[in-house]
Design goal:
By secondary structure, this protein is α/β, with parallel strands linked by helices. It has a single domain (about 30-160), classed as Glutaredoxin, CATH 3.40.30.10. Helices cover about 35% and strands about 20% of the residues. It has a seven-stranded mixed sheet with strand order 2-1-5-4-3-6-7. The N and C termini lie far apart (about 60 Å).
């Protein structure tokens, strides 16, 4: 009996190990404390935005083809229409080419600049946009201070809004 249970346990471990190898390594994502001060994003108008340039930045990371983004996007539009952005740079960022990203932002009614990850190496693009919809708060020095699911935009934005302004719902 004990031998049978041991064989079953070893078999399960081998199967789980094979599945984990088949899936590949767990991807890295941006987390609190990551320094991304050297990261630059190109807005669809051609302007380059460097994180860590002295401005607090909120990145709204989305994918125009993602059904989850489509669920969160209307709430972002409402939040963006109510938030005071004088002391905070807000940038919507998407993988892929500028055309679809810009069209999506316009369709959703977002009144913020849209950037793409085009031109970034694959690993960096995955680091930034591996999870969508996602919100990433970056301080003046380019350090991630908070990040979370797109439905938590108020909470994530609240972590870098200490200098004034109002954040609805935070």
């Amino acid at each position: 009996m004990v031998l049978g249970l041991t064989v079953i346990a070893i078999t399960q471990l081998v199967v789980l190990g094979a599945r984990a190898r088949a899936l590949g390594p767990v991807p890295d994502f941006l987390t609190d404390g990551d320094d991304i001060s050297t990261l630059s994003l190109r807005r669809v108008d051609g302007t380059v935005v460097r994180l860590g340039d002295g401005r607090r930045t909120l990145l709204l990371v989305f994918d125009p083809e993602c059904p989850h983004t489509r669920l969160v996007a209307p709430a972002w539009a409402v939040w963006l229409s109510a938030v005071d952005t004088d002391d905070l740079r807000i940038l919507a960022a998407a993988p892929g080419s500028p055309g679809p990203a810009e069209a999506y932002g316009r369709e959703m009614g977002w009144r913020v600049p849209v950037a793409t990850l085009e031109g970034l190496d694959e690993d960096t693009a995955e680091l930034v946009a591996g999870r969508v919809p996602w919100v990433i708060a970056v301080d003046e020095e380019g350090v991630v201070v908070s990040e979370g699911h797109g439905s938590k935009v108020s909470e994530v934005a609240g972590t870098i809004r200490r200098g004034g302004g109002r954040v609805p719902g935070a």
